[in-house]
Design a protein that fits this description.
It comes from Coilia grayii. This protein is mainly alpha-helical. 61% of the residues lie in helices and 0% in strands. The longest helix is centred in the C-terminal third of the chain and has 28 residues.
């Protein structure tokens, strides 16, 4: 590789203007994310407003059902990761008695830790909505489909997935 092949560097080894621009843009974006962290109700309200705008856009345009279906599946996967524990108690080697409360002073109590924290859940869901909204501006993503089949398939997939998730969650707490 030559001297100027590294990302964001010009021929002389100094950061290029484009590299500095995108670095600064990333810093500003991260700063806004950091400032929004304590305001979960406001963050989710903005996400719901974006969702409503997206749904109205899809309804008015009468298209982009595949994009909407993919967004729904993505949100379902995020929701399942949000509900799931980081460490599955059924996979731990505790024997057959299942999870139990600490009985000795030196045993550690492990609270429920989510596989996907709330902030990352919100951030990923919002990014998904924004990307889906951008896709509605391109005709290439407007694949003609019979949307009622997609709705029925999504409902069936949701019920099967949530039934399995509830069964796994209940078995962890009951045993």
């Amino acid at each position: 590789m030559s001297e100027g092949d590294s990302v964001g560097e010009s021929i002389h080894g100094k950061p290029s203007a484009i590299g500095r621009f995108f670095t600064r843009l990333g810093q500003i974006y991260q700063s806004w994310l950091d400032k929004s962290t304590p305001f979960s109700a406001v963050r989710w309200a903005v996400t719901l407003i974006l969702t409503a705008i997206y749904m109205i856009r899809v309804y008015i345009l009468q298209g982009w059902y595949i994009v909407t279906y993919a967004l729904g599946i993505y949100h379902l996967n995020l929701f399942i990761a949000f509900l799931s524990p980081k460490v599955d108690p059924s996979l731990l080697d505790d024997g057959d008695e299942g999870p139990a409360l600490p009985t000795k002073q030196n045993e550690e109590f492990r609270p429920f830790i989510r596989r996907l924290p709330e902030f990352k859940f919100w951030h990923s869901a919002t990014k998904g909505i924004v990307i889906a909204m951008i896709c509605t501006f391109f005709e290439a993503f407007n694949v003609p489909v019979f949307w009622p089949i997609l709705v029925m398939y999504f409902i069936m997939l949701f019920c099967i997935t949530m039934k399995r998730q509830i069964k796994v969650s209940l078995s962890c707490f009951i045993s």
